[in-house]
Write a structure and sequence with these properties.
Elements lengths: L1 H11 L9 E9 L4 E6 L10 E7 L13 E9 L2 E9 L2
Parallel strand pairs: 3-5
Antiparallel strand pairs: 1-2, 1-4, 2-3, 4-5
C-alpha cells in the first residue's frame, strides 16, 4: 500500500522546474522599487522567449553589484506570483 501511495504522489505532484542560468544585459535599475530591467535570452523554466522585461529582486543588495550596460548571468522564477530574479552575477 505504501508503494502505491508514493507512486500516486509522484503523478499528482507538479514537476518542479529548476531555474537555469540565463544570459542577459542590464538596461535599467530601480533601487527604490527593488526592480531590474533585463534584455535576456529564453528562460526555459518560465517558458519565456528572449525579450526585455522588468523583474523584481529577491535580494535588493544585489542591485548594487551591477550597473546599466553590464552583461550578466541570472536565474529567475515566480516568487509569490511575481517574476523575480533569484540570483545575478556580472559576466566579464
Amino acid at each position: 500500500m505504501r508503494r502505491f501511495a508514493v507512486i500516486a504522489l509522484a503523478f499528482l505532484m507538479p514537476s518542479l522546474a529548476h531555474a537555469a542560468p540565463v544570459d542577459g544585459q542590464v538596461t535599467k535599475i530601480d533601487e527604490a522599487q527593488s526592480k531590474i530591467t533585463l534584455k535576456h535570452g529564453p528562460i526555459t523554466n518560465l517558458n519565456m522567449d528572449g525579450m526585455t522585461m522588468v523583474f523584481a529582486m529577491t535580494d535588493a543588495a544585489a542591485l548594487k553589484t551591477v550597473k546599466v550596460g553590464d552583461k550578466v548571468k541570472f536565474e529567475a522564477d515566480r516568487v509569490n506570483g511575481r517574476l523575480t530574479v533569484t540570483k545575478i552575477e556580472k559576466v566579464k
